[in-house]
Amino acid sequence: HRRFRPCAPEATHLVRLVVVDSHAVALAIANRVNVLAADDDGVMPARLLRIYAADYFARTSKSPAEFADMKDLAPALAEFDLRLQADQPEAALAVLKTVHDPLCRWGYHLQAIERYRLLEGRFSDPYAEASRVGHAGMAFLRGQNRMKAIECFRRALSILASAPERSERDDEIIRWRSNMAVALRPYGRLSEVEQIFRTTLSATRSTSYQRKALTQLGLVYRLRGRHEEAITYTQEAMKLAEDGRDRHAVEVLCTTLGGHYLDLGDVARARTLFERALVLSSASRDGVDPAWRASHLHALGDAFFLVGNTPEALRRYNESLALVRTIGLSSNLSAV
User: Fold this and answer.
1) Which of 77, 122, 134, 239 could form a disulfide with 89 if both were Cys (CB 3.0 to 4.6 A apart)?
2) What contacts 323, CB < 8 A, 6 or more positions away?
3) Mean of the per-residue pLDDT values for the chain?
4) Cβ proximity of 300 and 275 under 8 Å
5) Helix (H), strand (E) at residue 100
6) How far is CA 311 from CA 114, 267, 297, 301, 315, in A?
7) What is the mean pLDDT of residues 260-270?
8) Does the pLDDT of residue 16 top 70, yes or no?
9) How far is Cα of residue 283 from the mean position of the Cα atoms in its chain?
């Protein structure tokens, strides 16, 4: 402050802003800011201070594969705030997308939604704006706010419809149309949902989109009471997930497939699949997804209840209840 008095208020604010877990981090930023502030006039513009601090957090952030809890996300979230304040919306969106999945997986979807809202009106590129709106829709969907999710997906598709041609345009349209179909399914619009996913299967070579389409077609046929066909589609999706060594997709599909077998009265096979899902959930390197683990426990409770094992059923329901209360998913809470 004595040496660079003109930038002192900004530096003080910055140091206060970037503290994550220790004063050492703040001190490191302050020292680096002071070094860079020593230009010809002894003044560094506020925007450059923020960019430099954001670059610091970019270098110290863990990779997405290493995220285990919210502490691991703190540097990335600090970088997002600084990029936003430094008027770097594209960089801020890129950072937010790297933490989107863990935020939603660990029950912090409202934090993700708020950050997407902060980026509203900051993009001239229609593809960036469509991505912002679509990812907000995914966060709403994870929080079970399906109407808001559908509104976001429709908005993203509308933006892309009038956007100039780019190589990624078709994939982006498939992505948001597929997510919209997922949100529409519980409202009984099964023919519309089926058409969207059949179109997806014929239009993409992406195994991820194909797996999602097959899974959703299985759920459509389950709602129609055609359980054998539902199982066939879900088994095809499971094969793609296993071939691609996607542990989380296999975990989710175990519970989905188990639900189909439970509908047919094959409780033993369903229970085996639910228990496999729980094992995969516990062993995940990405950390436990509380929403899905709650679903696995709920499904396993149903399996125990159907064979008259009420104590085990109650134990699983209570474990599921504790998880959904923690992450605040009201629809799951009502079901349990």
Assistant:
1) 122
2) 290, 291, 293, 294, 297
3) 84
4) yes
5) helix 89-105
6) 41, 17, 14, 9, 6
7) 94
8) no
9) 19
The confidence score (pLDDT) of residue 52 equals 85
**Tokens found for residue 174:** 């498939």
Position 41 pLDDT exceeds 70: no
The whole-angstrom separation of Cα 335 and Cα 327 is 15
Q: Is 7 exposed, middle or buried (0-12, 13-18, 19+ CB in 10 A)?
A: buried
Residues in the chain: 336
Which segment, 161-175, 225-239, 288-302, is predicted with the most confidence on average? 225-239
User: pTM for the whole thing?
Assistant: 0.72
Token pair of 146, please?
A: 């399906």
CA distance 199 to 191: 12
Taking the C-alpha atoms of residue 142 and residue 336, their distance in angstroms, rounded to an integer, is: 17
Rounded Cα–Cα distance for residues 118 and 121 (Å): 9
Quick one: pLDDT at residue 3?
A: 43
The burial class, CB within 10 Å (0-12 / 13-18 / 19+), for 336 is: buried
Q: Could you tell me how many helices (H) and strands (E) the chain has, helices first?
A: 17, 0
Token reading at 214: 């097959």
Backbone angles phi, psi at 48, to 5 degrees: -70, -35
Angstrom distance (rounded) from CA 23 to CA 8: 18
Using alpha carbons only, what angle is made at residue 327 by residues 334 and 331, rounded to the nearest 5 degrees?
Answer: 20
| Alpha-carbon distances of 289 from 32, 65, 225, rounded to whole Å | 38, 14, 29
Q: What is the mean pLDDT of residues 60-75?
A: 85
